[in-house]
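Shipment paperwork, digital attachment
Item: protein structure file
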Amino acid sequence: MPRLRVRRDDLASHDLTDDGEGLPLEGGDARLQVERFALTSNNISYGVAGDMLGYWKLFPEPDGWGAIPAWGYATVTESQAPALAEGSRFFGLVPMGSELIVRPAVAGPGFVDTSPHRAELSPIYSTYLGVPADAEDVALIMRPLFGTALLLELVLAEAGFDGADTVVLTSASSKTAYGLAHCLRDHPVRTVGLTSPRRVEWVRELGLYDDVLSYEQVESLGAPGGAALVDFAGDRPLVRRVHEHLADQLKRSTFVGMTHWDAPAEEEPLRGPAQDFFFAPDEMTRRGATLGDAYGEAWQSFAPVVDRAMSITRVTGGEELTRVFSELLEGRADPATGYVAAL
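Attachment content:
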């Protein structure tokens, strides 16, 4: 049962471990073979927030180690759960490994894992949806990321953008950020993407932002009609620069992700509005079944953008998996590539 694990207090310290044959099932359990899973900067955010949001509880590891969850496809290979037939195929959170044991309770078109170690987690993270055999890699990568982007659009629009006419997005090359930029094109707001200098031209070529600036150009950012900041980077010094520069023009500041996981920590209060934390599972629960139709409609317009902006790269085996994980961790991964891995 090979899998990638990390030190919970140092994500850069990671290895591949293999426990050999899988554990025997208990009554009511099922064993799923992980077919493949997506690797994105979102996984880094899960690792950084592992303690704060309980992600380490999904796939427990001993002695200070942790298993970062990934969105993947998995097939039931052995079942002692009457409601889960062998050969059934599902989409949901899986370890970066080859196997997953669940205690399923049927829920709609899929199931919820009711294993005791998941009891305190959001049910969104324990829900697995049935998928057909031809489910695509693009959906595997983008479904959770674009879903978060759509939810952010709905929340910002519901709040009237707090009176701002500019939305500033950090980590503008990330798939969730440019998904949000796409969604915001239907609103009377200007979007500004902030990204690293080496990615400025690529982000501009997406054609989704009204303006793209490097992080070094933050102090040239103008927003006379007020601005809302959506932070995907988790870089506190960068956020402080935006707050200080925009001052009273900043109407809202929302913290979403942590692609810059190794940025220096700061605890001093920020000038201007306090950052609110966006937690997608809570918003999904609040909106319920209506979200599915909204996602389907929004995806139809975004799919051509994804086809143009992203190519799929399959990652096979432990050595390639650790290499790509390290590139994501260090911010070196190509934003134009969608990685799908299998062990």
